[in-house]
């Protein structure tokens, strides 16, 4: 593999990592607050549809992004209502959110655009285009650093930079602010938080809303930046891979970045090479596709350290009376 | 009691009679969805044309999951629909199971393969159509590298790829053909993001014409090809209009004709046969319209037409991947 190919594969890695990373951070907030969320997939899908639909109708991608975030937050609110207010089973609620999104996106798309559950192709201002960072063109001829800066770092859509900037921000919020401390506490021991006079319900709802916002950005990225329009079930399991990355990262922001980059890299390699020849042993592309799941199982089985989820995760909080 | 039985019997006979008189054909669309702008949409267009022409109605269902296949077949057969038309190779196994239970219903499988007295198997010579678009691709390519992006990795899609590669190499023996499959699960038919990434990967390897045989995934391929200013080739339906001037041509597979003819035959449709639609009966071909007229020069269309005539006459044989699971022009 020569240097240029490496840059191209890494470039593809960044594009593929972004939706995973956003969804993974979304899950991180939610699960750290004790709300398991397997509905990441559904929220991304709903956001992908509404951002593409509104971007097409209004011609403004920013309005589209807003609509995507709103739709995702509404679904998050639904999940919160079921699992926080009514203390329902979080896994079932998350699954319901996904199934709901898979159904109504196609239904509404067919009703609005009559193109068989897809939106018309977006063009011009209705799409996020790559932004060229300052000095990218000047630096491009410089050997080694030039291609890295001009090809790999520059030229992505603004949502990519946002996603990567969210990693340190998430770390700072969770580990350096009062809100973050309480958020983590509510996922470990909600009773203690309650005793301290802080609202468990309020904290959990805010975590779920943040989760919705991030999933909304992830969905909008898929349909308005990577693609030019919505196609039914276009998330294609990325929400679940993000969940796997979250477990792989053991619910920590920086590790989430590395896990998502790893999974993105695996996808990029699988897309670039149909089979990889390692000194006589040929690894078929299917192995690369399955690796994220295999790695997650290995982590869960306890081979590489222990993955301990937030202690109160999955359990609705019942205040003693 | 006996009167009652007779009455019931008569009522049943009447019901069956009524059902048979108004036997509506039924179409089962595969997981790609009715409006995939490709294979299933072609089937839908054929059914719609029949319905419009004869002022009749047809029953239809879009499958949402693998588990629905057998259920949908049985439901249509029991409701008296005839013929029951299925699209996609994946219907073969459930159809083989269900067909013997309903000997009076004629089933049609497009792309599948079922050996039963009441099943009509309709196939296409996709390798020949792909051969022609492969020739056009190699002639349009400036870099000498052309790409192929398949949906789910199944023998049928490899048949497309193999014909395409043979066509490209026939024009330019030194041509490089890069072939990628999107995945190995049905979600590979609906993953435009992966389609885009594959296209970008192929472009970076030098491809400047990319042929997508990937259902909904192909939408992403065509979009990226248009964005990156290279040419693409659509599949099944005519997709030239999606990006005017950027889609070189589309490999037509006249699923619509197959569906239309089956519906027109109605109750007279005979099972137990295999029909292969090829270049001669316009079952496959390449699309020419106002959107790609400027892209295909006279020289190119002449070469393609010549090859077409040779294939029809039997002077030129295109290797069919599914005949021996191997391809002389491409390794997977």
Descriptive report:
The complex is a heterodimer of chains A (321) and B (332). Chain A is mainly α and 321 residues long. In chain A, 69% of the residues lie in helices and 2% in strands. Chain B folds into 2 domains: 145 residues, Response regulator (Rossmann fold, 3-Layer(aba) Sandwich); 154 residues, Rossmann fold (3-Layer(aba) Sandwich). In chain B, the strands form 2 sheets. Chain B has a 6-stranded parallel sheet with strand order 2-1-3-4-5-11, with helices on both faces. Chain B has a 6-stranded mixed sheet with strand order 7-6-8-9-10-12, sandwiched between helices. In chain B, helix 5 packs antiparallel against helix 10. The longest helix of chain B has 20 residues. About 3% of the residues of chain B have low confidence. The interface between A and B is medium-sized, with 31 and 30 residues.
Instruction: Provide the number of structural domains of chain B.
Output: 2
Strand order of the largest sheet of chain A: 1-2
Poorly predicted runs of chain B:
13-21
Instruction: Enumerate how many helices of chain B there are, as a single number.
Output: 11
Distance between the termini of chain A: 65 Å
């Amino acid at each position: 593999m020569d240097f240029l190919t490496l840059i191209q594969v890494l470039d593809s890695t960044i594009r593929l990592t972004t939706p995973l990373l956003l969804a993974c951070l979304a899950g991180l907030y939610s699960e750290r607050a004790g709300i398991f969320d397997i509905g990441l997939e559904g929220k991304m899908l709903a956001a992908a549809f509404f951002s593409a639909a509104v971007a097409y109708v209004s011609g403004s991608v920013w309005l589209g992004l807003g609509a995507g975030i709103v739709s995702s937050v509404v679904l998050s609110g639904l999940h919160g209502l079921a699992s926080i207010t009514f203390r329902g089973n979080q896994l079932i609620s998350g699954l319901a959110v996904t199934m709901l999104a898979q159904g109504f996106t196609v239904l509404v798309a067919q009703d609005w655009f009559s193109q068989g559950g897809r939106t018309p192709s977006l063009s011009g201002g209705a799409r996020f285009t790559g932004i060229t960072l300052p000095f990218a063109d000047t630096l491009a001829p410089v050997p080694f650093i030039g291609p890295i800066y001009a090809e790999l770092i520059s030229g992505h859509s603004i949502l990519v930079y946002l996603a990567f900037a969210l990693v340190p921000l998430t770390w700072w919020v969770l580990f350096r602010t009062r809100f973050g401390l309480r958020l983590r506490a509510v996922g470990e021991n909600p009773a203690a938080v309650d005793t301290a006079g802080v609202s468990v319900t309020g904290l959990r709802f805010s975590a779920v809303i943040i989760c919705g916002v991030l999933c909304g950005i992830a969905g909008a990225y898929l349909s308005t930046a990577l693609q030019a329009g919505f196609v039914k079930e276009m998330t294609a399991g990325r929400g679940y891979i993000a969940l796997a990355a979250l477990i792989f990262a053991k619910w920590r922001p920086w590790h989430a970045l590395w896990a998502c980059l790893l999974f993105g890299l695996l996808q990029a390699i699988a897309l670039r090479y149909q089979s990889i020849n390692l000194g006589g042993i040929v690894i078929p592309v299917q192995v690369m596709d399955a690796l994220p799941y295999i790695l997650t199982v290995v982590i869960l089985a306890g081979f590489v350290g222990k993955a301990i989820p937030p202690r109160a995760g999955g359990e609705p909080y019942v205040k003693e009376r | 009691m006996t009167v009652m039985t007779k009455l019931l019997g008569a009522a049943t006979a009447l019901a069956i009679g009524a059902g048979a008189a108004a036997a509506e054909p039924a179409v089962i669309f595969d997981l790609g969805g009715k409006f995939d702008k490709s294979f299933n949409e072609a089937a839908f267009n054929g059914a719609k044309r029949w319905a419009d022409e004869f002022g009749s109605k047809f029953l239809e269902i879009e499958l949402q999951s693998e588990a629905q296949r057998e259920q949908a077949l049985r439901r249509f057969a029991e409701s008296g629909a005839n013929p029951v038309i299925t699209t996609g190779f994946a219907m073969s196994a459930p159809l083989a199971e269900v067909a013997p239970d309903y000997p009076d219903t004629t089933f049609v499988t497009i792309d599948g393969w079922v050996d039963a007295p009441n099943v009509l198997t309709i196939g296409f010579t996709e390798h020949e159509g792909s051969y022609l678009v492969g020739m056009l691709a190699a002639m349009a390519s400036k870099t000498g590298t052309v790409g192929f992006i398949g949906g789910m990795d199944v023998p049928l899609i490899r048949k497309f790829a193999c014909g395409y590669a043979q066509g490209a190499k026939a024009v330019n023996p030194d041509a490089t053909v890069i072939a990628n499959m999107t995945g190995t699960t049905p979600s590979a038919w609906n993953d435009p993001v992966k389609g885009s990434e594959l296209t970008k990967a192929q472009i970076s390897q030098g491809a400047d014409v990319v042929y997508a045989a990937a259902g909904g995934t192909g939408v992403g391929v065509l979009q990226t090809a248009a964005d990156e200013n290279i040419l693409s080739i659509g599949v099944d339906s005519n997709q030239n209009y999606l990006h005017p001037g950027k889609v070189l041509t589309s490999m037509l597979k006249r699923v619509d004709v197959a569906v239309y003819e089956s519906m027109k035959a109605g109750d007279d449709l005979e099972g137990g046969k295999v029909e292969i639609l090829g270049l001669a009966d316009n079952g496959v071909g390449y699309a020419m319209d106002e959107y790609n007229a400027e892209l295909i020069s006279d020289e190119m269309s002449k070469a393609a037409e010549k090859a077409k005539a040779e294939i029809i006459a039997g002077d030129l044989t295109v290797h069919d991947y599914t005949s021996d699971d191997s391809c002389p022009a491409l390794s997977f």
